[in-house]
Write a structure and sequence with these properties.
23% helix; alpha+beta; 367 residues
Length: 367
């Protein structure tokens, strides 16, 4: 069909963009002198053990012709990992799953400048110190979904291979249902904002889904609508300092859908509850920015769901010391995962895990 052909074309374009971004990033590293080589004639071996004089290594030119046996070296510049929270609270655990309350500022998986001070490292330490004694048959907990570094709240982990397989399948199924043809969701490659006229039915939509997640966020401005349905595709776009690109609103991205409703209107901001029907990176930050109400304190995303021009200027894609002023892991916004509903991977029981809500995201008592 025509729509299938268009979707296939857009998928190919996304792949080509990813490849082009990768090539540009390495071209930039080469231009910065971070890649050197030692010819097979100089090294005397196809493996450079480091015993040869460093003077025999030459900066690699982008148009250099390499031969079999030449040794290539990439110098990644040293860095200091930033201070981050070094703890988490356990909300629920058994042999199969672990649910924790992640603090804002703690990155889930190694990426960028943070490789050791991550939630994954803390989970491994927790397993070695406690869990392997309580549940001898379980493995170290592994997150089955992600929360942004600046996002706090419920995060679900699997502790067995079977649990990870089942939960991963449920996450995939939940997203597939949200973008299925019989679901009034966005068409691939279009951007639609439907607010105020669509009844907020997050609880009804969630009833037929294998899992559901609710968030609270503080957004800029006073929203005119009491509820909204945001449907904007999300995909990678070129961004200085990120070789794989930055996730943002993009007509060539994957379908994404979020439902929100207003909980309280402040003088210059709005407290909202958001139910995400798909699980795209930075989805709530992008969708609320696309709706004209970026998260309060978000240093990256602006109107349209794309990076603010002020943080992009001056940077160049890839390379060292050429990043934009702001990275996606930078914090400053208030976004909290309130609860997650899922079917237990071993028993099939319906589970709802909740995390305490930060004071700033509480509905005022006199509201």
């Amino acid at each position: 069909s025509l729509s299938a052909a268009a979707a296939s074309s857009q998928h190919c374009q996304a792949i080509l963009l990813s490849i082009l971004t990768w090539i540009r990033s390495w071209a930039q590293r080469i231009a910065c002198g971070q890649v050197t080589y030692c010819s097979s004639d100089d090294s005397g071996s196809s493996i450079d053990t480091g015993s040869k004089d460093r003077s025999s290594r030459q900066p690699l030119a982008a148009d250099a012709i390499l031969r079999a046996g030449d040794c290539i070296r990439y110098l990644r510049l040293p860095w200091q990992e930033p201070d981050v929270p070094d703890h988490f609270d356990v909300l629920y655990e058994d042999e199969h799953v672990l649910a924790i309350n992640k603090p804002a500022g703690l990155q889930v998986l190694p990426r960028g400048l943070i490789c050791q001070r991550t939630l994954l490292t803390l989970l491994q330490q927790y397993h070695q110190q406690y869990r392997h004694l309580r549940y001898p048959g379980s493995l170290a907990p592994v997150p089955v979904h992600r929360l942004g570094r600046g996002t706090s709240g419920v995060l679900l982990c699997a502790c067995t291979v079977a649990a990870r397989t089942r939960l991963s399948r449920d996450f995939y199924s939940a997203t597939a249902q949200a973008v299925a043809p019989n679901t009034p969701a966005v068409s691939h490659g279009t951007q639609t904002l439907t607010m105020g006229t669509v009844p907020y039915q997050a609880h009804l939509v969630a009833a037929d889904r294998p899992l559901g997640k609710r968030y609270r966020a503080l957004v800029t401005g006073v929203t005119a609508q009491d509820m909204g349905d945001v449907m904007v595709p999300i995909g990678p776009v070129l961004y200085p300092g990120l070789s794989t690109g930055l996730f943002a609103a993009s007509p060539t991205g994957k379908p994404a859908r979020s439902l929100f409703k207003v909980l309280h209107r402040h003088a210059d901001s709005t407290l909202i509850e958001v139910t995400i029907l798909t699980g795209r990176p930075h989805q709530i930050r992008i969708h609320m920015a696309a709706s004209g109400h970026p998260l309060v304190g978000d240093p990256l995303y602006g109107p349209g769901g794309v990076p603010l021009a002020s943080v992009v200027s001056g940077g160049k894609p890839g390379g060292c010391n050429r990043a934009a002023a702001v990275m996606p892991g930078d914090c400053g916004y208030n976004l909290h995962s309130v609860d997650i509903r899922f079917f237990h991977p071993a028993t099939g029981a319906s589970m709802v895990i909740e995390a305490p809500i930060p004071d700033i995201l509480q509905v005022p008592c006199n509201a």
